[in-house]
Amino acid sequence: MKKPASKPAEATAVHQVDDETLRNFIGYHMKRAFNVVQADLVQTLKPFDLRMLTYTALVLIVDNPGLRQSQLADAMDIERPNLVVIIDELERRELINRERVPTDRRAYALIATLAGRRLYEKAVAAVIAHESVLLDGIDETTRATVIAAMKQIEKSPRKG
Amino acid sequence: MKKPASKPAEATAVHQVDDETLRNFIGYHMKRAFNVVQADLVQTLKPFDLRMLTYTALVLIVDNPGLRQSQLADAMDIERPNLVVIIDELERRELINRERVPTDRRAYALIATLAGRRLYEKAVAAVIAHESVLLDGIDETTRATVIAAMKQIEKSPRKG
DNA sequence: TATTGTTATACTCTATAACTATA
DNA sequence: TATAGTTATAGAGTATAACAATA
Q1: Could you tell me if residue A42 is inside a domain?
Q2: Count of beta carbons in the 10 Å neighbourhood of residue A141
């Protein structure tokens, strides 16, 4: 894929792979495009020692001070057990704190630290810059259409 | 997300999580939508004992008889080592065969068996049916726009 | 030297059951 | 009994290095 380069004659017989059956299968394209976005994001976030999930969690906590873990898991659309290690990591790095909720001692309110908010500022700027490169050539209208379609698929009743 | 249901007063204070920072981040929506598509596909393919990757490999092999593993890995956009176990599984189930290429004894030509072609027919029909449900409410023009945008992102220079 | 397929390995993400402490 | 957070665990996808056989 990266380099078609020079292939032996036998190989070039099929060098253009027929993917007609898959071409109208939207999941096929979403997977491939998402892999590119994901790989780019990994590189973009590496300097900040964040991954997509730690980045998303940090952003939502900064923007929603006092958020509970279960609410964050819902917002991120991941299972609660999987969120625990993400919160553990952010807390270990002193980017956020778990604070006991006095009125419900089972729950934690998640609060970003100053360091967390500073990292947020830098990481968000980097992600926006990288994404604008990735989406270069796709006009605003199209972007909005794509995002609206993604949201519609997200809300599909088949989800639960 | 699945069930906002009844939450204690303290929780409802933030029951609408502010995701404004993430809203225009296309990767955020792609991830969430892809998870829905992926989860649906898992269910759709379960009766055939296929996963997204084994399904994709089977389809491409049926449509491209004689394909080499390295070409298939390129077409599927996965690393060659990861394809090996997929091919192993399809071969163990006698859906495909690895056949030595006389002119290049390093390579294998991948050929679907009759059973493989029969499973292909059924699985492709099921996937098309399920996807049409998933995309219900998204008109043809929008679907084409989304697929075109995905292809453009796929081809981003940042990929390699 | 380079390429095909392979092995081994590690990391990430996802998903479920079962536990604890609170409510 | 139900919920919030946790632990443990398993399955799947992704990525890299290194190897044998062959070109």
Answers
A1: yes
A2: 9
Q: Where on strand D do bases come within 7 A of a protein Cβ?
A: 3-9, 12-18, 21-23
Strand C closer than 7 A to residue B87 Cβ: yes
Nucleotide nearest to A87 (CA to C1'): D5
Give the distance from CA B133 to its chain's centroid.
Answer: 17
With an 8 Å Cβ cutoff, is A40 touching chain B? yes
Give the global pTM: 0.87
Is residue A14 included in any domain, yes or no? no
Return the ∠ at Cα B153 (arms to A128 and B124), rounded to 5°.
Answer: 135
Q: Is residue A160 part of a domain?
A: no
Count of domains forming chain A: 1
The Cα angle at residue B67 between residues B62 and B71, in degrees rounded to 5 = 125
Rounded CA gap, A90 and B34, in Å? Answer: 26
End-to-end Cα separation, chain A, in angstroms: 36
| Spatial CB neighbours of A140, under 8 Å, sequence gap ≥ 6 | none
* pLDDT tens per residue, range A68-104: 999 999 999 999 999 999 999 999 999 999 999 999 9
Q: How many CB atoms within 10 Å of residue B121? A: 11
Range of the domain at A106: 26-149
Backbone angles phi, psi at A6, to 5 degrees: -100, 120
Q: Indicate whether B16 belongs to any domain.
A: no
